[in-house]
Amino acid sequence: MIANVRIHDLPAQERPRERLAAQGAEKLSSADLIAILLRTGMKGMSAIHIAEQLLRQSGSLENLARAPLEELRKIKGIGRDKAVTLKAAFTLARKMAEELRHESPLLDTPERIAELVREDHRHASAETFQVVLLNTRRRLIKVETLSRGTLDTILVHPRDVFRSAITANAAAVVVVHNHPSGDPAPSEADIKVTRDLIRAGQLLKIDVLDHVILGRATSERSKDWASLKELGYFYA
Fold first, then answer.
1. What CATH topology corresponds to 104-227?
2. Are strands 172-178 and 207-214 parallel, antiparallel or unpaired?
3. pTM metric for this prediction
4. H-helix or E-strand containing 75?
């Protein structure tokens, strides 16, 4: 019979629940937080050890959140209930991000735009194009997904962007898409699409405020996004 290794059987310094209560959640590592979700380990492996193994095998929290239930259950120490708990936690985080949109936030910087839509793109394996529709005070009306492309190509037409803007009575838009490669630097196609949108917006009296590309931060690149406006590409 295989005995579970429970967190409360561990030495005090290895009890993430107690450390969270005493120090706050921000003080805990990703492995600690995952261990709290897992609750118990298995013979010879604590929940923390299983959590560390999960992160090693997946390579990142992003990949772990994207993994389907069947893949999670293949990892030693992860049964159906633990896999379901992990999937529920990651999905709840995404839903919370969606809920924040209903608070009509002020979206006057590329950082705020990136924060708003980051969860939509975090697990995408192909390029996804969105338009963020804003009122005259630069507050959110809604976000619409217009196109999903291939791994490195996306097709979007100005009429689709501005049809959404006109229907929503938006005064301005910010367009957003992701680079699954992780590098948010704009391609020549990204720059051309941006200039086409700016020209169309001028004719329709709808401001195109920015084009934000989402990627991933690295040790050499602190931001996981790029703003074509900040990079100087915003002229028609």
1. Cytidine Deaminase; domain 2 (3.40.140)
2. parallel
3. 0.60
4. none
